[in-house]
Amino acid sequence: MAKRDSLSNKKILTAAHEDYLKAIYTLHANGENVNNSALANMLGVAPASATNMVKKLADLQLVAYTPYQSVTLTEMGERIALEVLRHHRLVELYLHEKLHMPWDLVHEEAERLEHVISETLEDAMAAALNDPTVDPHGDPIPSKDGRIEPVEGAPLSIAELNRPYRVVRVLAQDPERLNYLGGLGLYPNAVITLLKRAPFSGPLLIDVAGEHHALAHDMAESVLIAPEEGEIG
After folding, report:
1. How far is CA 13 from CA 5, 39, 66, 147, in A?
2. How far apart are CA 79 and CA 225, in angstroms?
3. Do 20 and 122 belong to one domain?
């Protein structure tokens, strides 16, 4: 994987540069059109600020950018984005697994630490975690050489009734939603059965470990599931 110092000494990346590269990669991975407006919304900055940063990244040859059109990462830009994403998700998992931090608190800590950990610390964390492939939310962790395997799953909101599924990924990032979903036991690898679906995008009645819960339709859309092992797809 590309190191941050692979650019010349005059082109040192800041945390802000890396945040934008990661945001561009994430938007593309989610199938969204990446433009300055989408970046400004995702990063909580003014559109003018997003435009200025995209121009700087283009000058660094990290993005390909045409004004008023979409932004795409160059090969080097994507490598750096994947490195930052690997750091972020390794930190999240390490904080959760080794330091026992709740899964709803690790994201903000990882946002800060992803920019400063060394390659030595990255390797040590990966080894301590047995070279993991997903973080606490089921998000895929890029490999050391920049490969990333997608996590296949469908929204819980479209599950078949009375069929067991396994949670494979939770797309929510904000602490309140994660705290709520965690309180229902909707962590990756949890087995869940949809018992009833209200019409007109109404709430769902689900079974998790023998307990029944009502779950809002929009919340169910952020929980990705796959048929439980042994089930016929």
Report:
1. 8, 18, 22, 22
2. 29
3. yes
